[in-house]
Records
---
Amino acid sequence: MQQLRRLITIAYVFIKYRLDDFVPVHLLPWYLRLAFYLAPWRLNPLPKRMPKEKRLRLALIKLGPIFIKFGQILSTRRDLLSPKLAAELAKLQDKVPPFSSRLAKNIIEQALEDDVSKIFARFDTDPLASASIAQVHAAQLLSGEEVVVKVIRPNIERTIEKDIRLMLVAARLFQRYARDGKRLKPIEVVEDYRHTIFGELDLMSEAANCAQLRRNFQDSPLLYVPDVYWDWCRENVMVQERIYGTPIGDVETLISKGTNMKVLAERGVEIFFRQVFQDSFFHADMHPGNIFVDCQDPESPRYIAIDCGIVGTLSEVDQDYLARNLLAFFNQDYHEVARLHVESGWVGAETRINEFEGAIRSVCEPIFEKPLEEISFGQLLLRLFQVARRYNMEVQPQLVLLQKTLLNIEGLGRQLYPQLDLWSTAKPYLESWMKRRMGPQAIWQEIKRQAPAWIAHGPQMPELIRNSLISFNQYPQHQAQLNKRLENIESSLDGQAKGRKHRAVGTLVAALGLVSLHTPYMWDAQASSSLIALGIAWILLRG
Ligand SMILES: Nc1ncnc2c1ncn2[C@@H]1O[C@H](COP(=O)(O)OP(=O)(O)OP(=O)(O)O)[C@@H](O)[C@H]1O
């Protein structure tokens, strides 16, 4: 029944905002097309005066937080949407009315199994922020620390599940009937969203991500991540150190505090590349609401990151892919890019390198038309993925996540300091990464990494060798080879032993001749010389 009511609401919003403009009517079967043209909503011309992208944004707001968040995430898929639609959806803000503080307290008390007044010296009933998934309250621990308490909205899981089911129905219809239905992969996009949003519901996993990121940047002047109070963390409640930075989007305040905007913008890029190439662990939800700046030293501004619900990790293969390709790209060596793809099996071995190189060149050259400081790494990667997909390369979701984060970071950096030269900030990172990866130190590190395993296996070595020989023996052809080799070895050993014997006899005979030659009255000189000659001949011929 509830589902039906929700469906009616969606239909109403669809009609109200005339979202039929997104439906390619000419591709529908004739009866649906007829129904479409006769539909009474077509008499509602009012919203038509508004661009359809704006109408879609307003419709998502009307449908509530789950749809708003979907729109926000969708806005980062610039590989799928038109620039106009992506820009419009990026305006979505998931500020939603808070739920009651009484309810928030109940959830906290149930999760932490204690009274709020026994856990906190102070608990602010007015929430600090209220978003689609969670609400945040400021508080103070009994030990005096200022903290924030993040509480997941009640019953949000059921709401998400229901809304996503409806989104999937819409996605299936879209995939079936829309002109771009297959290319835009709507079902995959919705499934992806389901995965992301459910991931955000587990605050224990968010707390663990925060702790890891904090450790990675311990003592770094670049980034600060607030501490987590594990004793007070559960799946739906998280208590974290409160931070007091300036929101990164508040450029006016940052400037008024005398912040060095160039350093700030460069540090953003540095943080990103360090996360990717040093730690292989990156904050993947770097929207302005999650980034603050500590301006205590305006010449050395430090980033503060919160909300580590979405993080990305890269395998060594992904890192390798990224670093080598970015370096080759910036040297405009498209042949190298194409070769790398084929060599590492990212695209099929049958791919013609020259043809692939041409395809990459044609999408990248226009980008390099611009001055270096205007080139977008994110766009570049996006283009590369698009070409690679045409050549049947499955781009890993982690790389797509990274590319979206990179677009965010770049946008942010250029907003702070429009002349930001990403390449000169990133190049040293990439190059030192390559050196670290390929240089003697990397080999030494690898030996060090493997050594414990080798040592651990040391005592089992004879057994391992024996086992390998046994398994080797199991193959008849190998056995025959092995037997042959053994025979060869035996006969060679045999030969060597015989040779040694003959050499000994020859030496003995020659030595006897020598002795008799120098011993008066033993034999005459001729007999002695004959003995010496016989001994030498014996050695030469039989030894
Ligand atoms: N440690 C903190 N110290 C101070 N303020 C905080 C802290 N954590 C969160 N906030 C405030 O609460 C707001 C929402 O927090 P957070 O981003 O973690 O929630 P969210 O529900 O995951 O939101 P979204 O996913 O929409 O970004 C932040 O924008 C910030 O203003």
---
Amino acid sequence: MAASKQGFFLSFEGIDGAGKSSHIDALARALRQAGRTVTLTREPGGTPLAEQVRTLLLHEAMDAHTEALLAFAARRHHVGHVIAPALARGEVVISDRFADATFAYQGAGRGLDWSVLLELERITLSGFGLNPDAVLKPDLTLWFDLPAATAAQRLAAARVPDRFEAQPEHFFAAVAGGYARRCAEDGARFARIAADADRPGVWQQVLAAVQAHGLLEGAA
Ligand SMILES: Nc1ncnc2c1ncn2[C@@H]1O[C@H](COP(=O)(O)OP(=O)(O)O)[C@@H](O)[C@H]1O
Ligand SMILES: Cc1cn([C@H]2C[C@H](O)[C@@H](COP(=O)(O)OP(=O)(O)O)O2)c(=O)[nH]c1=O
């Protein structure tokens, strides 16, 4: 019987237009080719209930507290029904955004108090692992760091904006600052990807970060 593999939780983060989506599927494919079972998911969303919350968050006007409470409620359902069970089965979980997005968008972007978000994170995400006091965090977060002006140029050419993507450039500069703060507070978990590189250059950085954690060794 093959040795059982340990679960690994990987999140992709960055402002809208940073280029995450261009690499998530490729990474899942590469991990599957290397013999791993991969659960690919996203936030807000990831369960039928949380996908309904996503529709509300992206399309209904609301204040920042309501956004954060809905994001964390959806996240708890997502962790309980999808992420924690997949990790317990030894799978690699890749989530397109996780809790750092709430700190960046609702905290730095919309001005919600950082300590309130830390408390919501603690209440919502503890009790899932073996240690009931531990807050569930990704093992590795790939943070696509891109100047807000560059992301805006990319998005203008790409798609019809949702409620967040329609925000002005200074909002995304603040959101990027929120990601930088989370990275400064928990540096070992983060790999900063210089997302202004061309696609092959970004992919090489993604690969290197994942390999540094013992996944995909030898892939090029
Ligand atoms: N390295 C890159 N250089 C230039 N354009 C890119 C790069 N990566 C992605 N793009 C383009 O930028 C836009 C946003 O990329 P996307 O992957 O949808 O970003 P995100 O998922 O982070 O919002 C898309 O039109 C995409 O084709
Ligand atoms: C997870 C999360 C996302 N968001 C925002 C960030 C994005 O603008 C939006 C949806 O993210 P995303 O899936 O990246 O959008 P798209 O499918 O258009 O690429 O929700 C928050 O404001 N708070 C959160 O907690």
